[in-house]
Hints:
Layout: H1 4-16, H2 23-37, E1 41-45, E2 74-80, E3 87-95, E4 98-105, E5 112-117, H3 118-121, H4 137-152, E6 167-168, E7 174-175, E8 191-192, E9 198-199, H5 229-257
Antiparallel strand pairs: 1-2, 2-3, 3-4, 4-5, 6-7, 8-9
Helix pairs in contact: 1-2, 2-4
Amino acid sequence: xxxxxxxxxxxxxxxxxxxxxxxxxxxxxxxxxxxxxxxxxxxxxxxxxxxxxxxxxxxxxxxxxxxxxxxxxxxxxxxxxxxxxxxxxxxxxxxxxxxxxxxxxxxxxxxxxxxxxxxxxxxxxxxxxxxxxxxxxxxxxxxxxxxxxxxxxxxxxxxxxxxxxxxxxxxxxxxxxxxxxxxxxxxxxxxxxxxxxxxxxxxxxxxxxxxxxxxxxxxxxxxxxxxxxxxxxxxxxxxxxxxxxxxxxxxxxxxxxx
Length: 258
């Protein structure tokens, strides 16, 4: 059974009577219809929505959908939010069998992002009715509400299905975890154990015979890791120490012989 929101989305599509050139067109318009059914008013679309000042310029009032799919494989819409009257820029990009959606609200630090599988939500070509050109519409509308609209309004925490992979440590920063295709990095610098003990760092590879790097659990010389003047000084001191040790050894050997 369709939800009330899904019925509203289809109602927007029927009332607008858009001409679709591709399956991506249908999905992009479903994104627009979801915003419209949520109370957003359309301030710009098509070439006007790609302008550099699309978010910052004053709104000239509500516009129609003319030119919404003029560009190939990309779509842009600018809305006015019913929550706070701020502008929202929505861009959709067709990439193979997916539609990539990014939405940025005026004043926000970063956009929200969603990738939609075209095959999962768009029916076969040739359907007589608009409703027949979509499938799993309830799921699509729910995904847009959860991953785009709610996050734009700040009323939803990030979901567990986010693309960012990591775990939070006790300080709140994210540490990458080891998964196929994901590099796990060791932390740089000394680490403080919960007991209060300072654990020396483990440095990466890269030393050589001439300029050896410090071993695991050892701090580097003052000049830093790798090659520096202090490292050469250390080699000179080691050379003098070895020479003195050999001299003392031969001296003791001579005394024993006598």
